[in-house]
Amino acid sequence: MNAENYGSSERLVTAAYVRQGAQGRRAHELRLRALLEQGKCPEHGWDESTIELFLHELAIMDSNNFLGNCGVGEREGRVASGLVARRHYRLIHGIGRSGDISAVQPKAAGSSLLNKLTNSVVLDIIKLAGVRTVTNCFVVPMATGMSLTLCFLTLRHKRPKAKYIIWPRIDQKSCFKSMITAGFEPVVIENVLEGHELRTDIEAVEAKIKALGAESVLCVHSTTSCFAPRVPDRLEELAVICANYDIPHIVNNAYGVQSSKCMHLIQQGARVGRIDAFVQSLDKNFMVPVGGAIIAGFNESFIQEISKMYPGRASASPSLDVLITLLSLGTSGYKQLLKERKEMFSYLSSELKKLADNHNERLLETPHNPISLAMSLKNLDENNDAAVTQLGSMLFTRQVSGARVVPCGSVQTVNNYTFKGFMSHANDYPCAYLNAASAIGIKKQDVDVFLKRLDKCLKTFGKEAKKEKSVNEISNSNTGTEQLED
Questions:
Q1: β 411-414/417-420 pair status
Q2: Buried (b) or exposed (e) across 281-296, using 16+ Cβ within 10 A?
Q3: Using one digit for the tens of pLDDT, what is the confidence trace for 219-275?
Q4: For strand 164-168 and strand 217-223, is the pairing parallel, antiparallel, or unpaired?
Q5: Cα separation of 158 and 218, whole Å?
Q6: Which of 45, 256, 386, 395 is least enclosed by beta carbons within 10 angstroms?
Q7: Residue from 289, 457, 295 nearest 380 by CA
Q8: Structure pTM?
Q9: If you write DSSP's letter for every residue of 256-299 in order, what string do you get?
Q10: What's the CA gap between 437 and 443, in Å, rounded?
């Protein structure tokens, strides 16, 4: 509705009522205008009617929604199912062009605008979360692993002699495979045990660079968010090494946006040394469906190079999902989620420690890990080799998802590389343990139900252990009696 249409409406409905309706519409339009002019996430979340109005306005800017449009090309935004069209708000053309995922599409102005606004809003949120000096980012419709691969492939053209990637060990398959898929050889740097924590061996990283030669190293591939007792890499020290040897530095920040500590590490690393790009998952940090990531960095031209490396157009679904989510939350809503996550981490830590003490276990001391916790399972491991994995199965069948049990001595081969002690980030971590994390969106009820069910499972094991011990004692007693009679 424009001024002309409102004027025509006054012939049918009382003018005062029409003006009141126009003012209501104006309130929505003022929000849209602020977004378009500032390119920042609004402080307060929008209602769904405003968001849907905005998306419909974008959709009618795409050629597939033009009245009377005649398409004779091979890709004209045709959709067979009305349900599918509505699911995507009729934004069918996707984002980017064949040569650049960030490029504008001539016949999809609305989808192109969606893409540009999403990247701008996400950049605003990354700054809000703690990386103040980030200069550029873009949403890519791939999960973290493939997004890391895209970064490595971009570096290939800058460092044609390189064949190795220095990688402080983190037992997570996708980040390891991201290097293999890009055609490089991962050089695994084992972590060092400091107390209960597994930390970056800085001396080993530098020694390996010297041994291989800086020119043969594509980059250092470090990690922030991870499962305890592994803690975020020493990003500042790694960034300084990378700057000193003129080696690129790519950071796997998979679920680190929700942690002020992880974001501070990235900010500090970029301040004192070198960080070329950092990659984060959309679903883990913004509570949207799986399938998207954000590639961000401090050199605008390098981030643009990465976007141009993406072959072809791309799905707009991840961009659409995260834009809707951030407009719904606003910066105040997202800040509140971050605050609640941090509070739940403290609560989970204190309550899990109490439970561990009750079962003669201990909460491992990992103060450098701001998201994940680990509780020892020494008693289970000593009583029964299979008990640790059985505990994991028991929790899963009792509808506890996300908890990980890590036995000692597990061996796993990934792309012809054998990891000893797989899942524990070390060849021989001293004990088996259980992981639980306080991630964005977690509620007190989640923590309470998890602890209650874990307690029941551990009590079940305790009863079985006592029963087995009693049977063994009776058996030993009978054997001793028989020997005396003989």
A1: antiparallel
A2: bbbbbbbbeebbbbbb
A3: 999 999 999 999 999 999 999 999 999 999 999 999 999 999 999 999 999 999 999
A4: parallel
A5: 9
A6: 386
A7: 457
A8: 0.94
A9: TTT-HHHHHHHHHHHHHS---EEEEEHHHHH---SS-EEEEES-
A10: 12
